[in-house]
Amino acid sequence: MSVDPSMAGRFARTALDHVCQEYPNKLDHVMGGDEDALSPSTLHPVFYGSFDWHSCVHSWWLLLTIRRVYPDLPEAPRITALADEMFTAEKLAVETEYARRPLSRGFERPYGWAWYLNLHLEASREPGKPWAQHMEPLARQFAAGWRDYLAALAYPIRTGTHFNTAFAMRLSLDWAEVFDPALAKLMGDTAMGWFEGHRDVRPIEPSGDDFLSGTLTVAQLMRKVGRVPFADWLDGYLPGLAQGRPACLFDPVVPRDRSDGKMAHLDGFNISRAWAWIEIGKAADLGERENPPEIALYNASIDQIDQDYMSSHWLASFALLTILAYEERHRS
């Protein structure tokens, strides 16, 4: 499991092929009148490709990350040129104004927010370009959205799809720790209030269109927050791990119809659980296993990153998250 130049190029070519592909397109768009019936590229002059707004955002995160890690890739100049074209102050101002509409209060909440914050964080690692400066107003808008959202949200959302609260908080914390420590503290406080006392959970996963494990995302978040002895907390949260229970957290799944966008989510369920197991790491007492679960889960779906468009417009981003976490864990 590694991002060698061959795999990095494959990821980059896949994303480059769709970040500016406008159609088919699935908008998250509330209209207040006929005047709001506009094309995706008019509404979103930066993030109109990749089937939907959030997939375009995290495909751009993938491209900028690949460019940084492998600057000598043949695809790197194309990534740079396209980023210069797209990440202008004018285009990103339109994206920001859209998010500030009263009717956009729930726009891409919280999944798209989290990925955009990570995109801004990645862009900030390129000091020679103004990309992060141009992205920052929208990042701050979403950070403010997080404050309002957490103040109003009575219970976490545990579904295995875009509305999952723990996943979005885990991803957003990477940005908040750098750009907004007060938000990072708020997320930590919220996570502790929601999840610290969870014991002996009994997950039944997945549902038919999950691409996240509602159970493992909570464990990832608690590991990231770092306010409790994690191994002890995990042992109480999932006491059967050493015996391979529950199997739904370990066993790969196979979609029956990968041309169906919802069913294709299950390949993401495999790969996101691989990422979760890597982040949970050695704190999980998994007993004697010939192969760690992340390897089997990753291998079950990695070939789908550039197959049917219902997977190729988003899956490589999760694969890159998984690979980077794997490499970091094995460096430490």
Task: Give a verbal description of the structure.
It is a single chain. The chain is mainly α. It has two domains: 1-152, no CATH class; 157-332, no CATH class. The protein has 15 helices and no strands. α7 packs parallel to α9 (181-195), α8 packs parallel to α10 (214-225) and α12 (265-280) packs parallel to α15 (315-331). The protein is globular, with a radius of gyration of 19 Å. The two termini are 16 Å apart.
Task: Note the topology.
Layout lengths: L4 H12 L23 H4 L9 H17 L6 H11 L2 H12 L10 H13 L7 H22 L12 H15 L1 H15 L18 H12 L4 H8 L27 H16 L12 H9 L7 H4 L2 H17 L1
Helix pairs in contact: 1-3, 3-4, 3-6, 5-7, 6-7, 6-8, 7-9, 8-9, 8-10, 9-10, 10-12, 12-13, 12-15
Task: Give a brief description.
The chain is mostly helical and 332 residues long. The chain is built from 15 helices and no strands. Helix 9 (181-195) packs across helix 10.
Report mean pLDDT, rounded to a whole number. 95
Tell me the number of structural domains: 2
Number of strands: 0
N- to C-terminal separation? 16 Å
- SSE topology string: HHHHHHHHHHHHHHH
Shape designation: globular
**Helix share of residues?**
55-70%
Major beta sheet, specifics?
none
Strand content bin: under 5%
Count of alpha/pi helices:
15
Q: State the low-pLDDT regions, or none.
A: none
Radius of gyration: 19 Å
**Structure class:** mainly alpha
What tags apply to this protein structure?
332 residues; single chain; 2 domains; mainly alpha
